[in-house]
Design goal:
alpha/beta, Barwin-like endoglucanases, 6-stranded mixed β-barrel, 37% helix
């Protein structure tokens, strides 16, 4: 192969690499723009869904990041305490156990639990070993439910709850 042929071959290779890179860039840029457009469309749909499901939080409530769990009166959940709460009342629908940073007797508005209590207002009447504030500031809140089956079905739910000032 002559010196000229080598230069021509090298030029073709460089040209192919440059064109491939340019075409690859445009392919990436077009993909990125179409992806951004699709994300914007999804975001607009989510905003309209959120407006449909808007929550009317009563005045005087402060939002708190929370992780909800559940407990019942069985020996697995409540050990020897049974239905007795930390306030010396008895457990019932609408009772929650919170960390000590939330005073006993406080009220919480928990919109995600509307199926358990229509007005979404819960009474802080209990404490527990599992209720605490996590390192990221999330409050673990334990919601009382009538049966252990409901407790198992409930699982863990991350949400925003509202504390009455």
């Amino acid at each position: 192969m002559t010196r000229l042929e080598k230069y021509v071959c090298a030029t073709y290779i460089c040209l192919a690499v440059a064109l491939g890179g340019v075409l690859g860039y445009f392919k990436f840029a077009v993909y990125d723009i179409s992806k951004a457009s699709a994300m914007q469309k999804d975001e607009n749909e989510n905003v309209s869904e959120a407006k449909e499901n808007e929550i009317n939080v009563p005045t005087g409530f402060v939002p708190i990041k929370a992780e909800l769990t559940a407990y019942c009166n069985c020996a697995i959940c409540s050990e020897q305490w049974g239905s007795q709460t930390a306030m010396q009342t008895h457990t019932r629908v609408g009772v929650v156990a919170t960390p000590k940073e939330i005073s006993l007797g406080s009220k919480l508005f928990i919109p995600d639990l509307k199926k358990f209590k229509e007005d979404c207002l819960f009474d802080v009447e209990d404490r527990g070993g599992a209720v605490k504030i996590k390192s990221d500031g999330t409050y673990i809140i334990d919601v009382w439910l009538p049966t252990h089956e409901q407790v198992k079905e409930f699982g863990r739910k991350k949400t925003i709850v509202y504390l009455l000032k």
